Amino acid sequence: MSETEAVSSEPIHVESEDHLQRLVVDNDVVLVDFYADWCGPCKMLEPTVAEIAAETDAVVAKVDIDALQTLAKNEGVRSVPTLQFYAGGQKGERFVGVQSKDDLVAHIESLA
Question: Quick check: keyword Disulfide bond in the entry (predicted)?
């Protein structure tokens, strides 16, 4: 893991399943945003996800389900946006659809 990923204030675009696993294992709290460029609700959620990356200690990872179809399938993603939380390397809560920033931040704080 690079130093910038450890303290990233911007969402990290996941390049592979291994890359996602490294992020999950190497960080305390990870929010994974499974999205697609063609998805209207994903575009609505994008500024919220960017703010969470900048304002919280959570690492925010973005997975393009079209570019990484196998990863999305293996993770059981059936619709976008899907937000998957990880804490201490373990899969946690999953939210599907557009969520409020307050709800997402509150959940991150409950995991920290």
Answer: yes
Residue 31's CATH number: 3.40.30.10
Number of domains in the chain: 1
What type of residue sits at position 95?
Answer: F
Residues in the chain: 112
pTM here?
0.92
Q: Which of 68, 103, 93, 64 is nearest to 80 (CA)?
A: 64
Q: What separation in angstroms does the CA of 11 have from each of 30, 92, 111?
A: 11, 19, 19
Model pLDDT for residues 3-53, shown as the tens digit of each residue = 344 457 899 999 999 999 999 999 999 999 999 999 999 999 999 999 999
